[in-house]
Amino acid sequence: MANTKYGKYIIREPFKKGRNEEVIEPLMNLEGAKHGGGANITLSRSWITQPFLMIKEPHTHDYDQFLIFAGGNPMDVRDFGAEVEFSLGKEGEKHIINTPTLVHIPPGIWHGPLRFTRIDRPIEFLDIFLAPEYIRK
Fold first, then answer.
1. Residue 30's closest CA among 47, 46, 53?
2. Is 136 within a domain?
3. Would you place residue 91 in the very low, low, confident or very high pLDDT band (cuts 50, 70, 90)?
4. What is the pLDDT of residue 24?
5. Is residue 105 in a domain?
6. pLDDT reported for residue 25
7. CB burial class (10 A; 0-12, 13-18, 19+) of residue 111?
8. Which neighbouring-strand residues pair with 42?
9. Which of 17, 70, 85, 89 has its CA at a distance of 20 to 30 angstroms from the CA of residue 125?
């Protein structure tokens, strides 16, 4: 499509290898630095099918981040067959996610660990941040 006037804006098969071997690959991926002309957005979409520790250590970013935990049943958006532990703040305030959930992490907020503790059915996980590339502090 790149041989047309606007074809450069159509990215076919935007996949990449994930950071965790437990995640089914390839991941759907949009990187503002690579695909969006430096746009301040990066998105990874993956399916979680087994329990595992995704993020071990608490960390921060200089940008907003959004985590979306969604069930895998398109006929029932509230069907969420999983449990996830996620900590926020320097003090490690633990939150249990067992329903479809959106988490907003403002710049500078400590977050992690992120542990998928129970997976009865596959769930969809989206990691969205408002920066052209992922930088962990």
1. 46
2. no
3. very high
4. 65
5. yes
6. 64
7. buried
8. 31, 129
9. 89
How many secondary structure helices (H) and strands (E) does the chain include?
A: 1, 10
What CATH number has the domain bearing residue 81?
Answer: 2.60.120.10
Label the pairing between strands 123-129 and 27-31. Answer: unpaired
CA distance 83 to 100: 10
Give a yes or no: residue 74 inside a domain.
yes
- Domain ranges, residue 37: 15-129
pLDDT recorded at residue 83? 98
Chain length of the chain: 137
pLDDT band at 106 (very low <50, low <70, confident <90, very high): very high
Q: Tell me: the pLDDT tens digits for 58-79?
A: 999 999 999 999 999 989 989 9
Contact, 77 vs 59, CB < 8 A?
Answer: no
CB-based contact 102:126 (threshold 8 Å) = no
Q: Is residue 6 part of a domain?
A: no
Q: Cα(62)–Cα(130) distance, rounded to whole angstroms?
A: 9
